[in-house]
Every structure is written in C-alpha cells, then in structure tokens.
Amino acid sequence: MMITRPHAPGPGTDTRLRDRMILGGCLVLLVVGLIGLASATGWDEVRAQIARLGLGQVLVLLALSLVNYLFRGLRWHLFARRLGLDTALVQNLRHFLGGFAMSVTPGRVGELVRMRWIRRETGWPFERTAPLVLIDRASDLAAMGLILALALALSTTGIMGAVPVAGLALLASFVVTRPSLLAWMSYGAYRATGRFGRLFVRVRRAALSLAQFSHPATMLFAATLGVVGWLAEGVAFFALLQWMGAEIGLWTAIAIFIFATLAGGLTGAPGGVGGAEAAMIALLAANHVPLEVSVPATAIIRVTTLWFAILIGLAVFPHAEAQSRKGSHALEHG
User: Rounded to an integer, what distance in angstroms lies between the CA atom of residue 148 and that of residue 162?
Assistant: First the structure.
C-alpha cells in the first residue's frame, strides 16, 4: 500500500500569510491607537467634534480628494503615452483608479495589478511597463517634496525633521528621473554584491528607458499635475481643522499633512497605516491642537483620502479586471 505525504505549503503561501498578518496587525494597531487616544480625551468630545461636520463639508473633503486622484490619473495617462502605450485616457484612468483597491496591501501590489492589466490589454511585458511605475512614484515624491519645502518656507512654525524628509523626497525623485545615474547605481550595486545579476540587468534596462520621460515640457506638466493634486488634499486638511475649531495656519496644516503622509510611507507599512496617523496627531499636538480635535480630524482626513481611494478602487477593480480579460482574449485571437 502506497502512503502519500501531504504536500507542504510552498514559500509563496508563507509569504502571503505573513503579508496578511502584517496588514491585519497594522490595522488593529491603528484602530486600537485611535480608540485609546479618543478614550483618553473622552468619547463625548470626540463625537461632538465629528458631529460638527455637515454633509456638505464631508462632500467638499471628498471632492478635494477626487481632484488629487484625477490629476494624478491624468499624469499616469501622460506618462503612459510618452512610454509609447497606445492606450486611451479612459483606459489609463481605469488602470490607475482600479489599482487603489490594493493601496494597503504589502509590497505595493496595486502597481503590479496595473502592470498586469496593461500586459493583458497591450501585450507589453512587465519589463517594458516598469518605467511607468518608477516615474509615477518619483513624480509623487517630487511633488510632495516641493509642497513640503514651500509650506515650511511660508509656515509660521517649523516641523522637526521636515527639512531632511523634504530633501530625501526630492533627492529620490532626482535619482529616479536621471536614467544614466540610476543605471550607473544599478551597475555599481551589482559589482559590489556580485549577486542578482538578472535583477540588476532588468533594473538597468528600466532605468535607461526612463529617458523617454525626460522632456522638459513633459516633466513640467507632470509636476504641475502632481503639485495641484496633493495641494488639494492639504487644503482639505486645513479646511477640516478650521471647521473643527483648530487655530492653525494654512501652510502649517499643509506641511503637517504632507510630512505625515511621507513619514507614513517611510515606515514601510501598507498605505502608511499607523505611521501617518501617529505623525499627524503628534505634529498637531506640537502646534497646540488639543487631542479632542486632532484625533477625530486625523481619523476623518484618512477616511476621506486613503480609504476613499480604496473605495473608488474597489468600485473600479471588477470592471478593470473584466476589461483586461477581454483585452487578453482579443490579443490571443486577433
């Protein structure tokens, strides 16, 4: 009688389980932290602050967030066309917005989903679309770094650590948008380690293909779209604080929002969950905003930015997936 052994789970199963546990842990810590802070200031005060917002004010916050998503979606379309993709505006917006469904997944899975949809609909492999992801990330860093630098210059109060963060964001965007420099760094990393040769070759190829985006008019238009988009969410944060009775200046509020968003990203947590909220509340406290205002304000602005984006992504995702399957079928039988 032959005895068969059960198949051991592969490494991919362990990785997925670990990623889910990390995401779940981040969300639990976020909820527990917000509940703890709200409890420390009293639920009555928190509920009273939230109740001060009317439906019209909530719609204004959502509209400003939508400005950010649409402007960045237009930038994604601009980069896709510069890369040589023969994709329409509606198609590119579908890819960009649908990827938001994966915003809080580990490892920026949303980017891979977008590339998968492009591959299905156009036949382009991941290696050819990788520059699109790199330039989009770099443009976000550049826009946020510029806004943070401007906000710090115009704000009446400083933010400890904001200048280095703004500098790092601008430096990272500079490196990514310099094809020859990025390719040289990739080659240097390979020479130093002597390992992962294929990976470094792919990175070098992707880096050299970034030259397609280096046209001054393209970069200027892309920077404008990114700055306007992220400024809209910063203004939303300022308006929210004003409605809740906080005495804080426009540029200080924008600086806090942008810095907290960047700081959350630096933690490596999906969507910056936990880190962005902690930074936002701490910076508001340093600017004499009481916890009974800062805690609900932080919760509301994250719901109307990050979680609103996820909701849009979840709404677009099934349509984007269905359209990509149709595109893949058309390519196979075209």
Answer: 8
Model-level pTM?
0.78
Q: What CA–CA distance (Å, rounded) separates 48 from 290?
A: 14
Could you tell me the mean pLDDT of each successive run of 10 residues in the chain, 334 residues long?
47 56 57 54 60 88 97 96 92 94 67 88 87 86 87 74 65 61 63 65 65 78 93 97 92 93 72 80 91 89 89 91 84 69
In a domain, 276, yes or no: yes
- Report the alpha-carbon distance of residue 157 to residue 165 in Å, rounded: 16
Q: Could you tell me if residue 12 is inside a domain?
A: no
Please answer whether residues 275 and 263 qualify as being in contact, where contact means their C-beta atoms are separated by less than 8 angstroms: yes
- CA 65/CA 308 separation, integer angstroms: 8
Dist CA 228 CA 238 (whole Å):
15
Q: Within 10 A of 182 (CB to CB), how many other CB atoms are there?
A: 20
In total, how many domains does the chain have? 1
Type of residue at 110: G
Distance CA 183, CA 323 (A): 35
Q: CB under 8 Å to 216, separation ≥6 — which residues?
A: none
Report the C-alpha gap between 208 and 294 in whole angstroms. 45
Residue 9 lies in a domain: no
Name the residue with tokens 């948008």.
177
Which residue from 37, 32, 27 is spatially nearest to 296, judged by alpha carbons?
37
Contacts 24+ apart (CB under 8 A), 182-185: 182/207, 182/210, 183/207, 183/208
Domain range enclosing 259: 50-76+88-177+214-325
Compute the distance between CA of residue 302 and CA of residue 63 in angstroms, rounded to an integer: 14
In angstroms, the CA 139 to CA 142 distance is 5
